Backbone:
């Protein structure tokens, strides 16, 4: 069983729709959860960072963590063609601010999203 | 641009060639990373350098050899690669953890490597 499962898509939705992207994980010790966005021919860029369970909102983006179900989601409201990208979830056991926490990140395989004008 | 520059953008090499990938960061960071991204697989961490000292090596084959001459530059030297090494190689940088905030990773655009 993979540590982190993410539906690779591709996912196509019309402009303006609400998009839901999800990851499930097997290690209940994960505490820190991230979403990265990767445009074609570019490297990933951090979109959202959350700790433990709950919601975090940033503009049109909402990250949701349900630790009891080992399930995280990213919602995109009023989706735009510029949101077309691959979205990667990532998670870690330790706070990333701890000693070299970035190398402890476990990534999903990414979901390829296309927003149709 | 994220402030992390990788060259070349594309590389085709034979299995007997020797080549190097270069990464340069202009962000004042002191930790640098090499990741491998293959189709339908998660990002795989290969190497971590902090203050020019290697601190992580995730059982990467010896045909990949990293070098970090200073905190702004990172190289990945390649020799006698295999076709399964074909992938996107991403460089990233961050502040050394402990500076008080989440240490966000900044990625370059990667080198798309094809091994024939």
Residues:
């Amino acid at each position: 069983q993979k540590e982190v499962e993410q539906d690779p898509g591709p996912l196509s939705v019309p402009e303006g729709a609400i998009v839901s992207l999800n990851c499930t994980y097997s290690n209940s010790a994960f505490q820190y959860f991230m979403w990265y966005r990767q445009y074609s021919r570019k490297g990933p860029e951090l979109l959202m960072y959350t700790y433990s369970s709950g919601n975090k909102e940033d503009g049109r983006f909402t990250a949701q963590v349900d630790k009891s179900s080992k399930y995280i989601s990213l919602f995109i409201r009023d989706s735009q063609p510029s949101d077309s990208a691959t979205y990667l979830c990532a998670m870690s056991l330790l706070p990333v601010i701890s000693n070299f926490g970035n190398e402890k990140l476990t990534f999903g395989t990414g979901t390829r999203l296309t927003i149709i004008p | 641009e994220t402030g992390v520059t990788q060259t070349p953008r594309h590389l085709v090499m034979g299995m007997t060639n020797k080549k190097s990938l270069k990464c340069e960061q202009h962000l004042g960071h002191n930790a640098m990373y090499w990741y491998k991204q293959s189709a339908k697989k998660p990002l795989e961490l290969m190497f971590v350098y902090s203050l020019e000292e290697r601190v992580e090596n995730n059982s990467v084959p010896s045909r990949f050899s990293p070098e970090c001459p200073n905190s702004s530059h990172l190289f990945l030297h390649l020799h006698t690669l295999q076709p399964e090494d074909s992938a996107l190689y991403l460089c990233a940088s961050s502040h050394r953890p402990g500076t008080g905030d989440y240490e966000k990773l900044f990625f370059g655009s990667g080198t798309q490597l094809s091994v024939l």
Remarks:
- Chain A has no helices and eleven strands.
- Chain A has a mean pLDDT of 90.
- The radius of gyration of chain A is 14 Å.
